[in-house]
Amino acid sequence: MAAQQQQNIDGFLAAENEAAKVILETVKKDGFILVFSHLDADGVAAAGVMGKMLSRLDARFRIRVMQWVDEKIIGEVIADKPQLVILTDFGSGYLDLLNEKIPNVKVVILDHHQTTSKVVNPNFTQVNPHLFGIDGATDVSGSGVAYFAAKAVNVSNVDLAPIALVGALGDMQDKYEQRSLRSLNEIIVNDGVAAGLLKVEKDLIFFGRETRPIYKMLATTTNPFIPGLSGQETESLNFVANLGIPLKQGDKPRSLCDLTADERKRLCSALADYLLSKGLHLEVDNLIGYVYVLTKEEPNTALRDAREFAVVLNSAGRMDRPSLGIAICMGDRKAALEESNKILEDYRKNINKYLGWVAEKPERMRELQNIYVIYGENFINEKIIGTVSSIIVSSLANNEKPLFAFANIEAEKAAKFSGRTTEAALRRGVNLGDVMRLASEAHGGKGGGHNIAAGAQVPLDKLDAFLKTADELVGRQLKGEKLASHDNA
Ligand SMILES: [Mn+2]
Prior knowledge:
By secondary structure, the protein is an alpha/beta fold. The chain folds into three domains: 3-162, inorganic pyrophosphatase (n-terminal core) (Alpha-Beta Complex); 202-353, no CATH class; 361-478, Diaminopimelate Epimerase, Chain A, domain 1. The chain is built from 18 helices and 15 strands. It has helices at residues 3-28, 41-56, 71-80, 95-101, 142-153, 161-170, 183-194, 214-220, 233-242, 261-277, 281-285, 306-318, 322-329, 335-360, 385-394, 423-427, 432-441, 463-478, and strands at 32-38, 60-66, 84-88, 107-110, 124-127, 198-204, 248-249, 252-253, 288-294, 365-367, 372-377, 403-409, 414-420, 446-449, 453-459. Helix 2 (41-56) links the parallel strand 1 and strand 2 (60-66). Bound molecules: manganese (II) ion. Residues 42, 89, 112, 141-142, 171 line the site of manganese (II) ion.
């Protein structure tokens, strides 16, 4: 590891020690702790890490999971009179708000999102990799930042490493070679392996390796995308059967994890040959990648594969049952797990219902000059709109128009937008984070995010104006223009 990188990590870990100190001091005085976390997989995992750490300390605490923090929630914080507020997987973006509304409350922020705030308040302890030259988009997630704080509180909390890893994969931080994890995430992986809780393997990288029948796994894959097999159940079934790989063991359908080494090799080289025959040389490299196995979990369950585990947490959060996800992170393998399987099923049904609904009528997905727009309005749940746009954009792979999907949040008279770009649009210079921020700010909303995925909230009566601006801005990016911050025309 380069000296500079080591120095960055040392600085980050020193900040975690500070956070741990604040937490321990509060617990020692028997103070009441309020934990807030974000409701995606990473946020739920972070909440689970905090919950386990605090219950091991016999602390008095309550955890709440939500999409964002606003003045209303701050008002509830004031009413609860906590001795400490901990924010995980968000918070750095709320520094100004917190400093304005509750400057005298002790706050620990364990976040990994970028921040521009300059707030310095001795009551606030912020741990964020960006403050130490570490990229929070790829090198550590919210649950990872929570994990290092827990480890600083007590080293016995290293048994939470698999949960932190699940959060990182939920945030899709496996952006390094062959979908590996690096930097702080790699330390978490090594902790988990050393504790005997985790095994890292190189294997075919399909989603569903523990739980999906092998041909279904092929048919449902979008990454890697295999034309002729992706989305095609019968073709996928024939493909596997023609290799002489039995689809069942007794009555039980076989998953990828059930295949012998030889069967796996046969499947892999057949898929490589198939992709090459279609001229898809690049996709061949995407077949193999790093797989993270939670060795103490039952085989053929979603919890054994870290990526599948992340989807369980995500569905619990999105379906308004984050406490189930937290319970699983804290070790519940009975009632909570059973119920979460039902939630996951409902979540998938919901997504399929939405996809069918969009496809039903052309006006539900409209094509503008430079973007596609899905009019989810009051039909699609605003917590699931992001998932829906991710899935639909993957079917537009070679298209250069990014996708904007929105659902109404009636209570706030606003539309919640979720934008996704295709690879092709990205290569041509589309940066959705800039588009969402500039277009929403031009019309009384707020937004931002990453180049490939971003979001915004816009007043409902400004919907058309916002779309017009976003369409224009994307058009300018597609022509090679780089938008500056004053370009919010
Ligand atoms: Mn996160």
